[in-house]
Structure formats: C-alpha cells, structure tokens
Amino acid sequence: MTPPRDMEDFVLASTTGEDFKFSEQGGRILLIYFGYLTCPDICPTTMAVLRQAYIAAGEPSARVKVVFITVDPERDSLERMGKYLGAFSPDFIGLRPTPEQLPELLENFNITAIRREVDSAAGYLIDHTAAVALVGPDGRILLEYPFGVASDEISYDLGVMLDYTFAPINYAPRDVTNIDPAREYRIVIPEGTSFLMAQGTDPGIIPLKIELTIGERDILVLENHDDMDYLVGGIWVAPNETVMKQFFEPQTFVGLCTITVGRDTVEIEVKKPE
C-alpha cells in the first residue's frame, strides 16, 4: 500500500478480558483480519495461514499481535471467539464490536461486509473483504495481504520488521498539529533524495542518533519533498507528506532508517529534562 494509511482510534471488547485500544498498541506489529465464526471456508483458511506465518516468525507475542475482528457480533460472543482462535494460537486476540460500532470500524479499514440470507441451518452468511491488514509500529496500515497470500510472504515481512524495528512497547508517539517550533526536531527530505541514493551517495540527512527531551524538544517532524516513501526509526512518511510525532515517555530505541547509504538504522533517545 502506498502511502501508509493513518487509522482512527477505537476501543473494543476483547477475548483477553480487557478492552483493546488501538492507540495503545504503539511499538507492536498488528495483523488484523475481519471475519466471522460460521464462515465456511475463507476465514478458517486465512487464520490457518496467519498461524503458519506467526509460528515461522518465532511466535513473537510481545511484539506481534494477530487480531480477529468479527463482522457478526450478533452470533459471535467473546467466549465463542476465544475458543475458536485458541485452536489456532493462544496468542491470537478476538475483538467484538457492538452493532453500533461496526459500520464506522468497517469504513475505517475499508472493509465491506454484506449479510446474505441462505436456505440452510446457518440462516445467513456474510460476504466480506478477506484482506489482512499489516499495521506498523507507528499505528499506520503499511500493507494489505489479499486472500490466498502465502504464509511465507507474511512471515518474511514480519522478519524484516522484527529485525529492524527495535522500538519498546512504550514507543507510541502521537500525531500532533499546531506545534511549538521551539520543541521540534525537523528532518527535511529534499526532492531528488532517492536519485542520490540510487547513485550510492548518502544524502546526509539522518544523524546516527536523534536526541529528544520531553517537554523541551520532544516533537519529531519528518518533512518529505521527494517522490518516495521513507522510514525513520519506525515512522513512515509518504511522498510530499509531513509527519509530526510527539514523544511522552523516556526511552531509547533503534529503528530502521531508509534514508541512508551504508547503514540502515537510526537510534532515537528520548530523555527526561535535566
């Protein structure tokens, strides 16, 4: 998917017994699938593929969450969802929106779900989008896998992200607007940066270490004037886009950086004020 897509926050009841809040998942990689328990074929097939990909990636439960969101809250209770998902992995999480929450959630993820009456014991089926959304550590959808994708394609992508996105769980910077310029650390990506890199020239935009201080200089601004997507420490910025992220917790992490030649990571340190 180009560019990565921002998502609206939501809170849903989950099979863990605690509410699942999307905005609190920062730092984790999410694989999100919409389905329903009485789906005869597509849903169990997709969940089996996700199980294979998750196992191949080493079952990294602290950093990767597989999330199943039901499009049939009328029949799919949290108890039933827990048993269903447990057959694939005890780490998989089920979310149950209310009928009132479901339409907005489907629109947020660009999912179609249409109820179709059938002459069988099931009573009705639901024709729905069968894509799996890959949400990156910065809370944006990076990829959408169509139905039928091979598990090794997903596990490969997970491996790349796990290798290079070393952000801790408390990462979760938030989008901001109307910022105080004195508190920003701005990185400008000029037009033609991708051309320089293709020639093997480091554009010299990214330092080895970005240092931020909470309450003083705690907003990272990525201003992209080029025609390529870039990644800086786990934060994606699309062509001709400006992304502003504010940090609220002290932390140090190393994340993938795609605006360098000869190295591919950047360290970000967020400190308390002295």
Description:
The protein contains five helices and 18 strands. It is α+β, with helices and mostly antiparallel strands. The chain has two domains: 11-163, Glutaredoxin (3-Layer(aba) Sandwich); 174-271, Immunoglobulin-like, CATH 2.60.40. The chain has a seven-stranded mixed sheet, covered by helices on one side. Strands 10-16-13-11 form a four-stranded mixed sheet, with no helix packed on it. Strands 12-18-17 form a three-stranded mixed sheet, with no helix packed on it. Strand 17 (251-256) and strand 18 (265-271) form a beta hairpin. Helix 1 crosses helix 4 (151-164). Residues 166-170 have low confidence and may be disordered.
Q: What are its keywords?
A:
single chain; Immunoglobulin-like; alpha+beta; 18 strands; 274 residues
Question: What topology emerges from the helices and strands here?
Answer:
Elements: E1 11-14, E2 20-21, E3 29-35, H1 42-56, E4 64-70, H2 78-86, E5 93-96, H3 102-108, E6 113-117, E7 124-128, E8 132-135, E9 141-145, H4 151-164, E10 174-175, E11 184-189, H5 193-198, E12 209-213, E13 219-224, E14 230-232, E15 235-237, E16 242-246, E17 251-256, E18 265-271
Parallel strand pairs: 3-4, 4-5, 11-13, 12-18
Antiparallel strand pairs: 1-2, 1-5, 3-8, 6-7, 8-9, 10-16, 13-16, 14-15, 17-18
Helix pairs in contact: 1-4
